[in-house]
Amino acid sequence: MSVMEVENSSGLAEINRAHREPQPLLKVSQLTKLYQPGKGCQAINFELWPGEVLGIVGESGSGKSTLLRVLSGREEPDNGYVQYQISPNNSVSLYGLSESERRRLLRTEWGVVHQHPMDGLRPRVSAGGNIGERLMAVGSRHYGDIREQAADWLSQVEIPVDRIDDMPITFSGGMQQRLQIARNLVTHPKLVFMDEPTGGLDVSVQARLLDLIRNLVTELGLSVVIVTHDLAVARLLAHRLVVMKESRIVETGLTDQVLDDPQHPYTQLLVSSVLQG
Amino acid sequence: MMNTMNNKVMLRVENISKTFVLHNQGGASLSVLDDSSFQVESGECVVLLGQSGSGKSTLLKALYANYLVDGGQILVRQNLDSRHWIDLVTATPKSILEVRKHTIGWVSQFLRVIPRISALDVVSQPLVELGENKTIAREKAKILLRRLNVPEALWHLAPATFSGGEQQRVNIARGFIVESPILLLDEPTASLDEKNCQVVIELISEAKQRGAAIVGIFHDESVRQRVADKIYDMSKSTLFVVEH
Amino acid sequence: MMYESGQASGYNYGYLDEQTKRMIRRSLLKAIAIPGYQVPFGGREMPMPYGWGTGGIQITAAIIGQPDVLKVIDQGADDTTNAVSIRQFFEKVAAVTTTEKTSDASLIQTRHRIPEKPLKEGQILIYQVPIPEPLRFIEPRETETRKMHELEEYGVMHVKLYEDIARYGHISTSYAYPVKVNGRYIMDPSPIPKFDNPKMNQMPALQLFGAGREKRIYAIPPYTDVKSLDFDDHPFEVQRWGEPCAICGSTESFLDEVVTDDQGGRMFVCSDTDYCREQQALPKSEESMSCL
Lengths: 277, 244, 292
Fold this sequence. Notes:
The complex is a heterotrimer. By secondary structure, chain A is of the alpha/beta class. Chain A is built from eleven helices and ten strands. Chain A has helices at 3-8, 12-20, 64-71, 99-108, 127-137, 143-156, 173-185, 203-220, 231-237, 255-260, 265-272; strands at residues 26-36, 39-48, 53-57, 79-87, 90-93, 110-113, 191-195, 223-228, 240-245, 248-254. In chain A, helix 5 (127-137) packs across helix 6 (143-156) and helix 5 packs parallel to helix 7. Chain B has helices spanning 56-63, 93-102, 119-129, 134-147, 164-176, 194-209, 221-227, and strands spanning 9-22, 28-41, 45-49, 71-77, 85-87, 104-107, 182-186, 213-217, 230-233, 238-241. A six-stranded mixed beta sheet of chain B has the order 6-7-8-3-9-10, sandwiched between helices. In chain B, strands 2-1-4-5 form a four-stranded antiparallel beta sheet, with helices on one face. Chain C is built from eight helices and twelve strands. Helix content of chain C is 28%, strand content 17%. Chain C has helices at 18-33, 54-63, 81-94, 142-150, 155-168, 197-200, 273-281, 286-290, and strands spanning 39-40, 69-74, 97-98, 107-111, 124-128, 179-181, 185-187, 206-211, 216-220, 226-228, 255-259, 266-270. In chain C, the strands form three sheets. Chain C has a seven-stranded mixed beta sheet. The A-C interface holds A 99-100, 103-104, 107, 122, 124-126, 128-129, 132-134, 136-138, 140-144, 146-147, 164-165 and C 138, 150-151, 153-156, 158-159, 162-163, 165-167, 231-234.
């Protein structure tokens, strides 16, 4: 509930309660963005808590990428809202903000990790420059400091620090993806959106990346919304799952429960289709 | 009606039923649990007894909220001193995650292997998640692994290449490292030799002594005899006290 | 030296028609009201191709009047082909008095340099600009760069400077060095050497910038803050030479390197021809006199 709504309802007790009870970091209500009937996402409802990883699974065409784009402020919905808890006592409606504020949010408190890392990197800027950009964008003006932070993040994502001046196009796919993650995390965001972050990577490279993401989530208390068609990735990273089929959520619950005891016919089909290694 | 007079009860299962509906097999339905009820007190171990297919594994998983149930209540007390109960059947996912973290320890039948995590880190993780210092958590993990006869050479390796028995012992250590008020054990001794069985029995006994309420499935009759205080017979849906 | 000439027949005064001049003046007023902001304008076909100063020429044409005295320089020199052509063009279409003396001019059109002699209130400096967009090097989309200016998203400018330092150990940009105008817009000052950047700050004269091909006008009103971008630990610095001008002896001006022979012989001379001439005409110092 936003502070505005609380003040309009019953009174002091309500306001006190709203302020004392922890609020979800993200609250999504009746979110809808359709390109055609059944194409896109509709009537999406869920909450995301601090430190939680939410997985959005479903087959291609289910609308998960659309949902992610709308959630991360990059595409305006037809209907519904996305409420973000910007501070303990204040929440904002994502599409009620000005474009400037929304873009600023995406540069500071939020992060977006794209499926193809080069979509989220500047190809002709060095690794250090890529990581340092967000710092410079929020006013960092000390070259030495910026470089030091960039080097620190490179080691956190297990990229050799001596590659700080190399161009991302000289990196392997897995390294590019890790660089993209570092670039996003440098401003200590609270919420990160990931779209198939391990797609297109070799299995062993995937394992390394997932391990990194899991550690960062725990160490930094990140909240993550991760879209994936890979149930093994979902099981490894997500606390909770949302299953999408043809633009709607058909099932939601704890990851292990949804994958081990699926209720909806579509979820059962998805789970049973996974090749056992 | 909740028995609040007996303040030793930690877990209360009331009238739970479960039917699996297999939508992709023509909607076939499997009734696995039917109106099961029992309770578990602090310091005791209830063993679920029944033939294969009797639903004991399903019941245990339902107690961890890994499986859903169709009706009834699964009431969990936060810890021995608390008056606060949570019904797993109606609780939010967030609450369930909290309950799993603080109250319910779980030893699954098979270790779910995560790539690149060392045995030591697998075991210490539940403690680290509760905020314990990593070094201290690792020390406790080492003690447990040593007790369970997992060779030190394996501690820094990822369990993917371990034998079934070694993996299970890592799993057990992970389940016992946090002193949870409630412990759920799914065939913990299945792949263990006599020596390690004995260690597990000792761990269970120690847990009981510190007041843990335990529910377990043990395929081995002799192990059952040594750990069970009560037996829940799946076929009769009744709880029996074990005569020692 | 002053040149008198007659108005060429068949052309409106200043070559452009009056409505076009009005349109350009409106753009100029808007540009002056928003220092450093690029104002699109309806650039006209000029009798020289793009890349030859059409932007600067259109601005000059829009504001020039009979009482004006026009100076045109190209890389600091009044006597290069381009400077001469443009000066003659305006002599023909505006019948205006022209000069090579900076202090005598009311309008100065320049390509890639600011005169050494400090300008005064009432003078107007008109710069020829090839690429007006300072963010173009990193963002090819016009829609995106407009948004970045609107939302003051200038982080990337410092990325460029960061890359320079990472690659060369220092900021290697030596001309068209980006500046922040009036604390708000980031601007490309045209390909003037960074040596000239400090002159733009709090300049008493009005500075106008015209890009003909890109059809953009921008401006810096008199006495406006213009700050060159840098890092706290890599502050902005101007170029320095190891020797003075070989002709006038100045150590304060921007020097061009001139190759004198095939054996690698070279000398450094002032790029600003008027300034160099003026320096030469100054009375010699007491010291040098006493050597005689």
